[in-house]
Amino acid sequence: MRIGLIQKLKVLRKIDTGYVLEDDVLLHNNELDTELEPEQEIEVFPYTDKKGQVIATTKLPSVQMDEYDWAEVVEVMPGLGVFVNIGIAKEMLVSIDDLPLFESVWPIIGDMLYVTLGKDQKGRLLAIPASEGVVERQWDIAPDDLLNQAISGRVYRTSKEGSAIISEDGYRGFIHHTERKDEPRLGEWVEGRVIDVKEDGTLNVSLRPLKQHSMGEDADNILMHLKQSNGVIPFSDKSDPEDIQGTFNISKAAFKRALGKLMKEQKIEQHDGKTFLK
């Protein structure tokens, strides 16, 4: 029996709880809205229940073996994975092995994952997120006039380097880790702006506000660090860019702009490679 695939099976006989189909597959009454006849051939989706028994549904999901679609996260189980709804009674597990290493960027209830179905070593169905290769075959080529335009999309991959999204128009975008304040979750819907249209038709996207808007926010963040550190931080406009990025999650250029704003307002001063709160 090929579970996880939509297929046609013949009705063998009627029982109290429903029908028995070919290969002893059970079709329960609550999965039907009409009466069936012996030898009638119907289209069903077979899967295994919690007891390991093969049952079928006439509610045909858009996700099946080797077929991909978006599925909503309906439950999160730390240490195990997340469950998604593919449109049938049984919710499918996305294993911890197919989720980000850090649970802080796991999807939450309501997020959407682009998945197909596969099987674990015991033959049980799992939902498996699409690989980069699968997504690459499906995204559309982005037009050049998207530069500097607003864009919205869903995160389908996260990594230390950045996050990849599929936009609502089907374009692939990449958010470098320097172009975000916080790392978005896998499956999260994000809104940003296009900062580059690449030759291969993909996009570079930023979730950060424009420079003139972000400078005040960055300055407030530096002031907060100063107040939490008794009025002094071991940073200045000469500090290492990686140290700045690691502490403030902004580029050195953005850090220097924010420092300049604070110095102009006479809120800070610098000497001996440190910044002091006035």
The beta-strand count equals 18
Strand content: 35-45%
Overall mean pLDDT stands at: 91
Number of helical runs?
Answer: 4
Shape: elongated
Summarize the structure.
By secondary structure, the chain is of the alpha+beta class. It has helices at 132-136, 211-228, 241-248, 252-264; strands at residues 7-15, 18-21, 25-28, 41-48, 54-57, 69-77, 81-85, 92-95, 112-119, 125-129, 150-158, 162-167, 172-176, 189-197, 203-206, 232-233, 268-271, 274-277.
Task: Explain the overall architecture.
The chain is an alpha+beta fold and 278 residues long. It has 4 domains: 7-57, no CATH class; 69-130, Beta Barrel (OB fold (Dihydrolipoamide Acetyltransferase, E2P)), CATH 2.40.50; 136-206, Nucleic acid-binding proteins (OB fold (Dihydrolipoamide Acetyltransferase, E2P), Beta Barrel), CATH 2.40.50; 211-277, Winged helix-like DNA-binding domain superfamily/Winged helix DNA-binding domain (Arc Repressor Mutant, subunit A). It has helices spanning 132-136, 211-228, 241-248, 252-264, and strands spanning 7-15, 18-21, 25-28, 41-48, 54-57, 69-77, 81-85, 92-95, 112-119, 125-129, 150-158, 162-167, 172-176, 189-197, 203-206, 232-233, 268-271, 274-277. The strands form 4 sheets. It has a 5-stranded mixed barrel with strand order 1-2-3-5-4. A 5-stranded antiparallel sheet has the order 8-7-6-9-10, with no helix packed on it. The protein is elongated and about 90 Å long. The mean pLDDT is 91. Residues 148-208 form the S1 motif domain. Pfam families: CvfB_1st, CvfB_2nd, S1_2, WHD_CvfB. Belongs to the CvfB family. This is S1 motif domain-containing protein.
